[in-house]
Specification:
Length: 645
């Protein structure tokens, strides 16, 4: 740690001076009022002479500017003498008043001086305090809003190394070169090589961009400045630019070092994208950042690392060579990466012997590093609530269901009719999924309300998928329509509920993307008809359909045809397998939750054998009455890799 990181002065000495000043002021006030209370009330000099003449005065102490006396009844008084009154002594002798002279007290003189100069001392103290606040760095002073808010993290704050980063090996390898440069800059400069001035970490939220930047600083053993992009921008024009200058000045004093700017898109957006003068402050801040990144040489040892999950909105000048030379993609981990990440987080948790990280990694496709950390934490909390000493596989399975499907709402009161409709709805999804070859396998089906849904069918892919084919998209459309079709077949046209609102939203969005983005319409061809635009002043996003009115009508017609075909396909499957639909629905009413293996066994053998449970015969009829089910909300959770219908 350098001297700039040390506190200014000893805080105990500062506190001692502050409390000493307060004590001195209180002592002054008490002494002034105390001395006045002892001397008694101030009376006119003429009244004093009258009291002496009336023989009511017992004794007096005569000073140069004050006379303190005591009456015969014990009361004190004081008066201010009149100059050149030579008859006072004779008057006191005539009336037998004991009198004595009073010498000037040093304490009284000190109190007098302090009383007169105390206001000036207070003004001087306030001025000194204001000047120190102006000079204080880090933007924490009363007038330090132009100072950088970057925080300096050292090993005292918790050292992070590459051992703490798992699942993103390619990104880590790209950044290890920066670590080698910070450790031994001369090794690269001898051959004329220059290390990149900046590295931009691009990835989805929770993939470990900030953790990776801290690991670089921890491996290199250099100071690590961290700041958010939003910390630069203020309502006053010019403040952000001032903070950028101050941040680079601090970095140069601590070189070699790393400056990490999180969410740089808050300040690095395209210039000129706003309206009026609303973005003058942000654009000035960006301009200053561009100038500063060109204002130092690579051999100064300052590495700028920034992170964002929206690289498309960044200004091109920020990404050119010489500024952020290297863009490092931090992806969502694959199954091997998820296993490594789970191993890192499980080190802090006492595990039962049956816990297998590989199995958990296979069941969590699409999970980021933050999602996996949350999964391990939820499992530990569940084990603690269940008063267990070790976290078992069951806790991880329950935690995974909670993260992917939402928390169970067993306290929600549902009528028998509502449960039956929900059971047939979810059975329709499950049955169509089983008989669609391109559909992902079913992980779990439940009619227990979770999150905003009354029930859910969760499907998980057998392996990590990075692209989706037409047959799988058509299968997903059919599965999405399975719930609505089951309601139509079992309850009738007039008793269809609003529970399929999330399914319809998903199916419409998927069909629209197939037609307008992915070129999967024979009539429209492989063209993109939809463009994503930023909203007003950069807030939100809007979709713009490109084409004539006839083209837009054809797009709507193709979307409608895709959804209608999926509805017809789901109707055909559920009509041909009506007995299996009843069997699945009865099993869900009985057990509430079925795993993928349970559904497979039930459809193959016609019964479900569980220890201590009854068996359900296939095709057993059931009397069902229609009912109105409230809107269940979206029935999809997770990303493309984990869909719950």
């Amino acid at each position: 740690m350098n001297n700039d990181d040390q506190p200014n002065g000893n805080p105990w000495v500062k506190s001692l001076f502050v409390w000493g000043g307060i004590f001195l002021a209180l002592l002054l006030v008490v002494s002034m009022f105390g001395s006045r209370a002892e001397s008694g009330p101030l009376i006119p000099y003429s009244d004093f002479r009258a009291k002496v003449a009336q023989d009511t005065v017992a004794s007096v102490d005569i000073g140069d500017d004050r006379i303190d006396g005591k009456l015969k009844n014990g009361e004190n008084f004081s008066t201010i003498p009149v100059a050149n009154d030579t008859s006072l002594v004779q008057l006191l002798q005539d009336h037998d008043v004991r009198y004595a002279g009073k010498s000037p007290e040093q304490g009284s003189m000190l109190l007098y001086v302090l009383a007169n100069f105390l206001p000036f001392l207070l003004l001087l103290g306030i001025a000194v305090f204001a000047l120190r606040q102006v000079q204080k760095g880090g933007g924490s002073g009363a007038m330090g809003f132009g100072k950088s808010k970057a925080k300096l993290l050292t090993e005292r704050a918790g050292r992070v190394t590459f051992d703490d980063v798992a699942g993103i090996d390619e990104a880590r390898e790209e950044l290890e070169e920066i670590v080698e440069f910070l450790r031994d800059p001369g090794r690269f400069s001898k051959l004329g090589g220059q290390i990149p001035k900046g590295a931009l970490l691009v990835g989805s939220p929770g993939t470990g961009k900030t953790l990776l930047a801290r690991a670089i600083a921890g491996e290199a053993g250099v100071p690590f400045f961290t700041i958010s992009g939003s910390d630069f921008v203020e309502m006053f024009v010019g403040v952000g630019a001032s903070r950028v200058r101050d941040m680079f000045e601090q970095a140069k004093k601590n070189a070699p070092c790393i400056v990490f700017i999180d969410e740089i898109d808050a300040v690095g957006r395209h210039r000129g994208s706003g309206l009026g003068n609303s973005n003058d402050e942000r654009e000035q801040t960006l301009n200053q950042l561009l100038v500063e990144m060109d204002g130092f040489e690579a051999n100064e040892g300052i590495i700028i690392i920034a992170a964002t999950n929206r690289p498309d909105v960044l200004d091109p000048a920020l990404l050119r060579p010489g500024r952020f030379d290297r863009q490092v993609v931090v992806p969502v981990p694959d199954i091997d990466g998820r296993e490594k990440i789970l191993a890192v987080h499980m080190k802090k948790v006492p595990l039962a012997p049956d816990v297998n990280p590989r199995v958990i990694a296979r069941g969590t496709p699409g999970f980021s590093g933050a999602d996996l950390a949350n999964l391990v934490n939820e499992a530990a909390l569940l084990a603690a609530r269940r008063s267990k000493r070790l976290v078992a596989m069951q806790e991880f399975e329950d935690a995974k269901d909670k993260v992917m499907m939402g928390a169970e709402r067993r306290s929600m009161v549902m009528t028998e009719d509502e449960k039956k409709m929900t059971a047939y709805h979810e059975a329709g999804h499950a049955l169509v999924s089983v008989h669609e070859p391109a559909s992902d396998p079913i992980h779990k089906a439940t009619i227990i309300p979770r999150g905003r849904a009354l029930g859910m069918v969760m499907r998980l892919p057998e392996r990590d998928s990075y692209s989706y084919h037409r047959d799988k998209m058509l299968a997903n459309l059919s599965v999405a329509m399975g719930g609505r079709v089951a309601e139509e077949l079992i309850f009738g046209y007039d008793k269809v509920s609003s529970g399929a609102s999330g399914d319809i939203q998903y199916a419409t969005g998927l069909a629209r993307s197939m037609v307008t983005k992915w070129g999967m319409s024979d009539k429209l061809g492989p063209l993109q008809y939809e463009d994503q635009q930023e909203g007003y002043l950069g807030m939100g996003a809007s979709q713009r359909i490109m084409g004539s009115d006839e083209t837009n009508k054809l797009i709507d017609s193709e979307i409608r045809e895709l959804v209608d075909n999926a509805h017809a396909r789901a109707t055909q499957i559920l009509t041909d397998r009506n007995e299996e639909l009843h069997t699945l629905a009865l099993a869900m009413l009985e057990y509430e939750t079925l795993t993928g293996d349970d559904i497979k066994q039930l459809l193959e053998t016609g019964k479900l054998d569980r220890p201590g449970d009854m068996t359900l015969a296939a095709g057993k009829p059931v009397a069902v009455r229609g009912s109105s089910i409230p809107k269940a909300g979206k029935r999809f959770s997770g990303g493309p890799a984990a869909q719950g219908i």
